Amino acid sequence: MSFGWEGDKVRLVPLDREKHLENALKWFNDPDVTGWLETGDWPLTRGAEEEFFRAAERNDRVSVQFAVETLEGEHVGFSGLRRIDWQSRVAVSGSVIGRSDLWGRGFGSDAASVRNRYAFDVLGLRLLIATVIADNAASLKMLANAGYTEVGRVPGRYWKRGAYRDQAILALHRA
User: Fold this and answer.
1) Which residue in 42, 71, 120, 150 is deepest, having the highest Cβ count within 10 Å?
2) Nearest residue to 63 (alpha-carbon basis) of 145, 101, 119
3) pTM over 0.85
4) Rounded distance, CA 137 to CA 92, Å?
């Protein structure tokens, strides 16, 4: 069996430049994909994304990034943990499904659940924090499906697509 943390629909695998870089460039430069992401309105260059992949390869112990693949091996998104605080055992989590034809079909929820299991069972973390633009109903639903609860909001945190948008803060505690 190949390396990967499996769920019902997806497997999380290490980033592979050959297999995942082109999709990252395509998805993170697509206004439909980035429409409700906290980032993504600045053009993503090949050099910047290659540096992101190089940083992920360095194993700096403050972040871990995965590609999300279907169980059949098709690359559909990314998921990861960043700003890992080993003393407090807390990390910031995030996922994106870049294949818009798969939105709303449970791939994001499954990826988040697998990532959360990895964070708690392998890394020994106790708390995951996620932040999203509060108008992003799909992400809020995905996070709720993965067990997160909203713990607060920052009014007008982001300028996005012509308006200031609130940031929703969600948390998931180890059971």
Assistant:
1) 120
2) 119
3) yes
4) 19
